[in-house]
């Protein structure tokens, strides 16, 4: 790889950009006297001390990424026992496949992102390989979020007592979001340029979007609208059923247990999803988007942890919590087959030992 020795005047533009495609984000600093194509093999090298704050930003951000990956693996280890019992030990279904996709795509995605963020070594000898990792992580995360969307629709469908009207509405809204994300990602591929920079021994493969930033921001906003809308639907059905609760006293404690599962898992999940999406919109603020301050570093780092938890932890835990609840109902049942599903407002008997989400 060729090296280009230049000073700070050559790297005259330091632009912080962030990109999120299908609920996935990546923070990059683009150092560019010019835009380089993805096939370019030029490396920018500088030892100028004026870039030390930028180096500190990248290193600090990499620590947050490593912490997020560590937390994800730790959560997987904590839930492995339940997963073995409630997922691997039960009859396979569509929800089983969705669980495995989210859980076992999330771990390698997080690992790839960690490799990309490490600044002490170069992850590739060329910009092309680094960019390949970039797009692999982007499309992987888009796939994960597509699966999460299906899980959200499934839960809302159950919460609204299997209403075909709400199902049709949710599917159409979700397809609009997914198609928009795919189109944005495809356009981004042809507008993005990249460089590798080595600043005082710190390796950075940087990206710029060459006019696609507005389109990417619009994709973020549309995804956020979807998450907030799903949260509103979940809250509305909770409020509605709490109002109807006095008229359902004859159903006994089972109704309360159903709402306990709802409050602990469903609403928490939807709140978490919507909160992270809204949090990401903060990146659009000029004070954050153009800054590499300590506050911005913490903002981006905490956001990275929250996103990985959202993508790879909340979804699997939602499924496990409902299956655990169903398993407890079976264990406490005199006959061993009665089960209350979360199709709220009615009790349905299922001849299944494990139940499904």
UniProtKB/TrEMBL annotation:
Sorted UniProt keywords: Membrane, Transmembrane, Transmembrane helix
TM helices/strands, residue ranges: 61-80, 92-112, 132-153, 165-187, 220-239, 259-284
Domain DUF6533: 63-107
Superkingdom of origin organism: Eukaryota
Pfam families cross-referenced by the UniProt entry: DUF6533 (PF20151)
InterPro entries: DUF6533
Protein name: DUF6533 domain-containing protein
Organism in which the protein naturally occurs: Rhizopogon vinicolor AM-OR11-026
């Amino acid at each position: 790889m060729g090296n280009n020795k230049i000073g700070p005047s050559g790297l005259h533009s330091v632009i912080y950009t962030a990109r999120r495609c299908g609920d996935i984000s990546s923070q990059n600093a683009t150092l560019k006297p010019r835009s380089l194509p993805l096939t370019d093999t030029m490396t920018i090298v500088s030892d100028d001390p004026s870039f030390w704050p930028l180096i500190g930003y990248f290193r600090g951000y990499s620590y947050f990424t490593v912490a997020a990956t560590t937390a994800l693996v730790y959560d997987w280890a904590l839930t492995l026992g339940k997963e073995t019992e409630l997922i691997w030990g039960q009859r396979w279904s569509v929800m089983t496949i969705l669980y495995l996709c989210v859980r076992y795509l999330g771990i390698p995605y997080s690992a790839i992102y960690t490799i990309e963020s490490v600044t002490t070594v170069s992850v590739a000898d060329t910009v092309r390989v680094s960019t390949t990792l970039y797009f692999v992580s982007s499309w992987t995360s888009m796939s994960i979020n597509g699966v999460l969307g299906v899980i959200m629709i499934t839960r809302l469908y159950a919460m609204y007592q299997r209403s075909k009207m709400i199902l049709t509405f949710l599917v159409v809204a979700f397809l609009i979001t997914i198609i928009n994300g795919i189109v944005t990602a495809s356009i981004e591929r042809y507008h993005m340029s990249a460089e590798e920079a080595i600043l005082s021994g710190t390796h950075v493969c940087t990206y710029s979007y060459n006019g696609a930033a507005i389109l990417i921001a619009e994709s973020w906003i549309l995804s956020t609208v979807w998450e907030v809308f799903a949260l509103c639907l979940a809250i509305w059905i909770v409020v509605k059923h709490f109002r109807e609760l006095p008229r359902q006293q004859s159903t006994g404690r089972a109704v309360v247990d159903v709402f306990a599962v709802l409050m602990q898992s469903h609403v928490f999940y939807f709140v978490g999803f919507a909160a992270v999406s809204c949090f990401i919109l903060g990146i659009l603020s000029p004070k954050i988007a153009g800054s590499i301050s300590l506050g911005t570093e913490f903002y981006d780092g905490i956001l990275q942890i929250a996103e990985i938890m959202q993508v790879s932890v909340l979804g699997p835990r939602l499924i496990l919590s409902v299956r655990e609840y169903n398993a407890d109902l079976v264990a406490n049942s005199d006959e061993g087959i009665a089960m209350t599903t979360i199709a709220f407002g009615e009790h349905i008997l299922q001849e299944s030992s494990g139940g499904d989400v």
